[in-house]
Amino acid sequence: MSKDLTKPCVKCGAVDRYKGNGACRPCNLVMLANFRTTKPDYDKQWQANNPERKLAINRKSRYGLEQEQYEQMFLNQNGKCAICRENVVRDVDHCHATGKIRGLLCQTCNLMIGYSKDNPEVLRLGAEYLEEKDK
Questions:
Q1: Contacts of 73 (CB under 8 A, 6+ apart)
Q2: Closest CA to 88 of 108, 72, 68, 58
Q3: Does domain 65-135 match CATH 3.40.50.300?
Q4: pLDDT digits over 88-119, tens only?
Q5: What is the pTM of this model?
Q6: Nearest one of 72, 69, 91, 88 to 80, comparing CA atoms
Q7: Contact assessment for residue 9 and residue 2, using Cβ atoms and an 8 Å cutoff
Q8: What is the pLDDT of residues 10-30, one digit of tens each?
Q9: What whole-number distance in Å separates Cα of residue 42 and Cα of residue 129?
């Protein structure tokens, strides 16, 4: 059964983007701001009590990645980083130009990719440098 999206807002009476709590989006934002001023620590407490849920929400919001998709990627990589294959994954690696998800990385490898500005040539030069200097 679908929600009736034509009900008027309980605050202003507008029939616009009805939310589950009975308010339209603008009124819902005002209500949320008021709630946050009366309970400023609520978000922090919720995040502390629900760390996995918070990560799942962030992955969905940032990358469009559903929890089931993340879990499948995690299993496909045996829970290990796609680059070093040693550390447990923490980050979703994605192309900043296209937004395409490439895999799951540990924080160290994700930072390495980020500091190279996603440029494979910089990473190759870095590898050559290490091989040359470590002889």
A1: 101, 103, 104
A2: 108
A3: no
A4: 898 999 988 888 999 999 999 999 999 999 99
A5: 0.69
A6: 88
A7: no
A8: 888 887 666 677 888 888 889
A9: 49
Phi, psi at 81, each rounded to 5°: -60, 140
pLDDT number for residue 10: 81
Q: In the predicted model, is pLDDT for residue 42 greater than 70?
A: yes
Contact 75, 64 (CB under 8 A): no
Is-contact 95 117, C-beta < 8 A?
no
Exposed, middle or buried by CB within 10 Å (0-12, 13-18, 19+), for 27?
buried
Please classify residue 117 by burial: count the beta carbons closer than 10 Å to its beta carbon, then call 0-12 exposed, 13-18 middle and 19+ buried.
Answer: exposed
Instruction: Enumerate the CATH 3.40.1800.10 domain ranges in the chain, comma separated.
Output: 65-135
Contact 21, 28 (CB under 8 A): yes
Joined tokens for residue 11: 């605050």
